[in-house]
Specification:
- The complex is a heterotrimer of chains A (265), B (364) and C (293).
- By secondary structure, chain A is mostly helical.
- Chain A has 14 helices and three strands.
- Chain A folds into two domains: 45 residues, no CATH class; 206 residues, MetI-like (MetI-like fold, Orthogonal Bundle), CATH 1.10.3720.
- A two-stranded antiparallel sheet of chain A has the order 2-3.
- In chain A, a hairpin with a 2-residue loop joins strand 2 and strand 3.
- By secondary structure, chain B is an alpha+beta fold.
- The longest helix of chain B is centred in the middle third of the chain and has 15 residues.
- Chain B starts with a strand and ends in an 8-residue tail after the last strand.
- Chain C has a domain of 201 residues: MetI-like fold.
- In chain C, helix 7 runs antiparallel to helix 10, helix 7 runs antiparallel to helix 11 and helix 12 packs antiparallel against helix 13.
- The chains are: A mainly alpha (265), B alpha+beta (364), C mainly alpha (293).
- At the A-C interface, helix 1, helix 2, helix 4, strand 1 and helix 5 of A face strand 1, helix 1, helix 3, helix 4 and helix 5 of C.
- Strand 1 of chain A pairs parallel with strand 1 of chain C.
Chain lengths: 265, 364, 293
Amino acid sequence: MTVRRIGLTLFILFLLIPIYWLVVMSFKSNTEITTQLTFFPNHWTLVHYDDIFSSGKWTGSFLHSLSYVVINVAITLPLAIPAAYAFSRYDFLADKHLFFWFLTNLMAPPAVFLIPYFQLYHSIHLFDTVFAVALAHTLFNLPLAVWILEGFMSGVPREIDETAYLDGYSLPRFFIKIFIPLIGSGIGVAAFFCFMFSWIELLLANTLTSSNAMPFATMMSSAFTASGTNWGILAASGTLSIIPGILVIWFVRDRIASGFSLGRV
Amino acid sequence: MARIDFQQTGHRYNEDGPYALKPMTHSWDDGGAYALLGPSGCGKTTLLNICSGLLRPSDGRVLFDGRDVTDVPTQGRNIAQVFQFPVIYDTMTVFDNLAFPLRNRGVEKGRVRERVRDVAKMLEIDRDLRRRAKELTADEKQLISMGRGLVRDDVAAILFDEPLTVIDPQLKWKLRRQLKRVHQNLGLTLIYVTHDQTEALTFADKVVVMSNGEIVQIGSPQALFERPEHTFVGYFIGSPGMNFFPCELDGAEAVIGDSRVALPEGLASRAHETGARSFKLGIRPEFVGLAADDEPGIAAPVEQIEELGRFRVVTAWVGEHRLVAKLSEDTEDLGSDRPRFRFPQRWLRLYADERLVEHEGETA
Amino acid sequence: MNNKITDQRAWLLVLPATFLVVFSSLIPFIAIVNYSFQIVFNMHNHSFIGWSTFHDALTNDEFRSALGRQVLFTASVLAIEVPLGIGVALTMPRSGRAVGPVLVVLALPLLVPWNVVGLIWQIFARADIGLFGAFVNNVLHINYNYATGTFSAWFTVVLMSVWHWTSLIALLCYAGLCAIPGAFYQAARIDGASRWAMFRFIELPKLRGVLTIAILLRFVYSFKVYAEPLQVTGGGPGTSTTFMTEMLTNTAIGQFAYGKAAAYGLLYFLIILLISYVFYIVLTRVGTSEGGE
């Protein structure tokens, strides 16, 4: 038992140290970052945070990113769940190929999608909206969610479905009252990963937006200028960008750790 | 073959919370087949988990064959368990599944093969030994689960936690039959948790009826049927459940509204001795008959009659209380819409504050 | 596995998701297949060249060495992250007050934008202004400089990847472990199984689904790695840490050879596809009997 605790603690430290480094950097001046090694800032400064919060562009960009991520998860999960159920419970024409094909959408280098997407979203008048990014991100999030959920659904014995039908449950009621609680871990973790991958994605978000729906990733790239990199502001925005994700995983933590308990059945 | 003793055994999940299982003292014999029967939340699963070692009781002690096992974990008790859904090792064959408990205990190969073959034969899954366990049907998987308990020599009791839950109704009888065979052939103590009375009554020698964390009655299926010691047992067992009529006592008769029913000798006085404040008269629908013209009876207007093959179920009203009678299909027609019903004294039960008042000369 | 029922109506359940993904992927995909067979000089001059572009790619030194480095990188990263991720998942608490905080810490590296990951490590691993670099050089007395040393550069990009991505595997496996009903552990205890046997016969088989997706994801994303190593080592020293995506980007943008780059890109995609398919077949067949699924 203790060996495991030590191992886990070491790993947690390993993860936390660069984060601590990031956070501390955000409170240092750019000069200090690039010239000295200090554990804590010699002069604590809030100038980078100030730059961010006082700029409508920065705060607006956070909101844009948050919007499209939330919309994306709201589209992805309800579509992924029935699809995953079909893959898990039924054999149908070309099912294995379809399943693998879903995954292949994660593989293509995104760079190749940029120009076609640019044209596509212009033509349907969604360019420079959060909806464009939300939709575009389903390219990789839908397959991901379907794959994760299918894995969890296959862990629930089929007999439970059948028993429920015999007891008179209709498919929707069975789903909501019995099935979804049983795959709670899968839904929690799928929701988190969809959030995370969409939040992180730069290329598509950049390409499909300009001034109206600018994501914070684009704002961050403005910190790389010809006169040098604004490390401090990158560190500060990096630190801030972690926060929504922390809230998400905190929110779904019980879902993820929820066990499989056959309650009423 | 284990005798299980409970000494003031009880459990509550929180220090000052309600008891999931109220402290009780009981002994269960060697080799008996016990069914723990009751509605959800009655404490039967808690009791089973205390037996298996999954739960350490907050109160009292548990003994197996005189040995205190309260603090002994599951693997130290000589028990096996079958769960609500089939628990098998997916990656192994049926043979390996059954051999697993023996191999873990270092049993030598020849003996392993022998035991596995024997058990598989008894459970009628010997033709499937080479197959991957996960390919079998649910009921066959449950047999494997049970088989893992049976291959071991040191198993004293097998615990079943609603094992027929995910089994196809058509196949439930197959598993029940296997259970009976196992019980007859091996004489192990079997403890079976269920909320289904049919399962309990067909499986068990002794049924432990539970409600609200308490054991209400332990008895053979017949005893529970004919002599429910508590109105709850009357309600719960039997389909439909027992009829109950709140009544007053007047001399040697029970008064239900306008009707009077003669009670067996001495019953009324014993009822008064209990000092109870409420009385109920109970009789099972199966024992209600039609009164002939010269016999005493209670007239009750009929609400409906259901023909159910060999039975005719008649629902009538005695005052404000429903009377259900289960008559055989060859009783004559009721005659009128307000026939007279007969309550044979032999099957009359009187309850004082929900508890049975003993008939004279009857043993518990 | 459970027995599946054959029912074509299942297509109805899958249709909405399929439709959306087709909308997102097929249309643009056709466009690039088209491009790769042409030389696009200034995006106006199209002419069909065909297979020669692919042939050039496979014999090109630049392509092959980048591919070689990429394979080595991905192999190293998977070899470390998969066992480590599983191990971490096994040690993570599944109940109690520590669950939330541990999950948060695990999630942190995944939430950092990829260019910031590169940023952190770029400074962190420097000997003069970085905590890690200083520690290795001055406390462990190992010569460590990712700008000048090939091994140091490799070590840094691999370590950065492990830091960044192990949590993906750990979180997926953790959720998978939580989904295992307690009855299995109870039964294993009754059967007298050792901890290792429980892992081998219960946990690992039940993790197959999540491990498949975790390994495939890690394979694909590490094969496509770009921003993080670029930020730290710039592909160097020299070209020692120039992996496929960077090589492709240089070809497209640096050399203005869009057709060539598109051909490379398609080939690259096909390689990823092929290896993923192999992984997929292997991972879904492991532990299954021949012919019975």
